[in-house]
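Worked example 2:
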Amino acid sequence: MSKMIFVNLPVKDLNRSVEFFGKLGFTFNKQFTDENATAMEIDKDNGIYAMLLVEPYFKGFTKKEIADATKTTEAIVALGLESRAAVDELADKALASGGSPANEPMDEGYMYGRSFQDPDGHQWEVMWMDAAAVEPS
């Protein structure tokens, strides 16, 4: 089995989250979807998913309190995209679909990014980088 990544995020309203991310073009694995959770496919071919879990179900996986992402930052989910235009397209869709701005756009020439918060307050960064312009270390 190849390595896979599952980012688990608590959500207050699963249907609202599915609707929001669906508007951004994400799909969901129906095999791992029920009233408590869904597997949002970020990059199915490379095994990258966000598990959106309703808060009571999410609570079953931790002894800690669930962070209120509208007040604190528990994580920043960053997605690398293929172009500056793709960054703008996804960020604009997020803002038009009920997301809110998180930070000002960042433009370093070889690297460009924007950010938004989903309806539960989770912070998402979308970025493009010209890898050929980065000095090898």
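The longest strand covers residues 5-11. Strands lie at 5-11, 27-29, 37-43, 48-54, 76-80, 100-101, 106-107, 111-117, 123-129.
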